Amino acid sequence: MKKNKKKQLLRYVVPFMAIVLMLGLAVACNGSSEPKEEVRKEEKSLDIEIISKTIDVKYIVIGLNSIDIEHTPPNEDKYTTTHPVSPEVSVTYSNSQGGTEQISVVRLEKDIHSLGLSEIANPDKWNGETIANYKSVPKGEFLYISAQNQSPGNIIVIILIDGIVWKHSVAKGMYSIATANGCYD
Prior knowledge:
The protein is an alpha+beta fold. The protein contains four helices and ten strands; from the N terminus they run ααβββββααβββββ.
């Protein structure tokens, strides 16, 4: 009974803490969502044209989960085979308006086995499950993705900026959390 309560507590408290941390970091990046005084002065001036620089942001989660099955055929040596599983994760991420969104269950159909070893060596080609893809996000916005593993095994979260890996993180084990975040300037 205690084990079930602990699991329930982990399922709800950890994502809540991740959101609190994310909001604190977002404030640290920008200070607030209000434009800075310098920017307001420039906007009022007709002589200065403000050009907003934007980036394309893509959030990806990859499962590194598999099950090892031991085989002991009669009169033969014991051997083990590895089979991929479709892990489930809970994902929280920042959206293009500066808010957060959460998906309680994402089944990761693409895992490390389906990606191939050549892609693992080159993280810019990682192609897991796309959680969100935003075009024209202003530079300096706080970017965040966090995934909590609901299955045995490992997961990777990735933030791609203009198609290139900017940040990534790995979580190992059931109920572990991988987080990638920051302000891209």
